[in-house]
Amino acid sequence: MIKVDSLTKKYGGFTAVDDVCFTARPGRVTGFLGPNGAGKSTTMRIMVGLTPATSGIAEVSGRRFADLPNPGLEVGVLLDASAQHAGRTGREILTIAARTMGLSTRRVDEMLERVSLTPEESGRRVRNYSLGMRQRLGIATALLGEPEVLILDEPANGLDPAGIRWMRDLLRGYADQGGTVLLSSHLLHEIEVIADDLVVIGQGRIVAQGTKAELLASAGTLVRTSDVPTLARALVDADLDFVESAATAGADALRVEADPELVGQVAQRAGVALAELRAADGAGLEEMFLELTAETQREGAAA
Ligand SMILES: Nc1ncnc2c1ncn2[C@@H]1O[C@H](COP(=O)(O)OP(=O)(O)O)[C@@H](O)[C@H]1O
Ligand SMILES: [Mg+2]
Question: Domain residues of the chain, as ranges?
């Protein structure tokens, strides 16, 4: 279990993490989703004691990270996979971590096998590793102490599609056995396929959270017509909320917060011919995420 309560981090006058609250539960994969610069890494660094919070609390298994007697046995951490000592071999890095945690070096071989690093690869210096190999080594380090909680910052970066699939299966299995998994990503679809719960962050603030099913279900109806103005007027008259869906579905589409049946009736009464009428699946989440990303890019361009 991971609990974050009213967490805030300021760098001078800039608020990188703004009153963030969420819980990651055992047996579930929680996806921490947000565009670049949203505050994901800062939040995770605070959780594992690498950055002090300005205010608020982050707890792992009911305690602050700094109060865990042997943290590697409670929480596996993968933050920046390229931060490993480049002059050591993969096996050396794992062996040192195992000794620090008081584990037998037999665990090292088990973990190397688990992440499919061959004896030849684990004998190479990390400076000669691909990013994907570094991610595998980072995961081996995180799993070493058989912790109940995993905190992984963009673990899919640098993995090829087969590697992403491998990681997804590994994390799924981990959560199915009762583990708590928190992983971040700046890519909606990467998170969507693996997460049970989602926490969405933009410019330091939580903008949505809930189960994936909840967030996808609240998407309403996608409707397409060549006469958008007439349909829009009819929807306003019927007191239905809607947004233009141009970003995800094209300029002739609206997303309406109502069932397809009701939207169809409104269109029929207004005499509007429809080109398409269907449940909007994840469109609401996707639009929200595109909007967040666009805002971030506008700010980046302005800066
Ligand atoms: N040490 C720091 N000093 C000043 N600003 C920082 C520092 N670390 C991160 N930031 C800023 O905080 C914001 C959030 O960064 P970060 O947590 O790395 O975002 P993410 O991981 O979601 O991409 C960014 O605008 C970043 O520039
Ligand atoms: Mg980051």
Answer: 2-213, 220-280
Fold of 2-213: Rossmann fold (3.40.50)
Give residues with Cβ within 8 angstroms of 197, minimum separation 6.
24, 25, 28, 29, 30, 31, 209, 210, 211, 212
Q: Is the pTM of this model over 0.85?
A: no
Instruction: Tell me the torsion sign for CA atoms 152, 156, 162, 165.
Output: positive
pLDDT in tens, 106-149: 999 999 999 999 999 999 999 999 888 999 999 999 999 999 99
How far apart CA 187 and CA 154 sit, in angstroms, is: 9
**Pocket lining: 16 vs ligand 1, CB cutoff 6 Å:** yes
Nearest atom (ligand 1) to Cα of 11: 4
Ligand 1 atom showing the smallest separation from residue 12 Cα: 4
If you measure from the C-alpha of residue 10 to the centroid of ligand 1, how many angstroms do you get, rounded to a whole number? 10
Q: Which CATH number fits domain 220-280: 3.40.50.720, 3.30.565.10, 3.30.70.100, 3.40.1160.10?
A: 3.30.70.100
Q: Which residues line ion ligand 2, judged by CB < 5 Å?
A: 40-41
Closest CA to 154 of 139, 169, 140, 166: 139
Q: What is the pLDDT of residues 68-110, one digit of tens each?
A: 989 989 999 999 766 667 889 999 999 999 999 999 989 999 9
- The answer to whether the CB of 42 is under 6 A from ligand 1 is yes
Point out the ligand nearest to the CA of residue 43: 1
Of all protein residues, the one whose alpha carbon is nearest to atom 11 of ligand 1 is 16
User: Considering every ligand atom, which ligand is closest to the CA of 155?
Assistant: 2
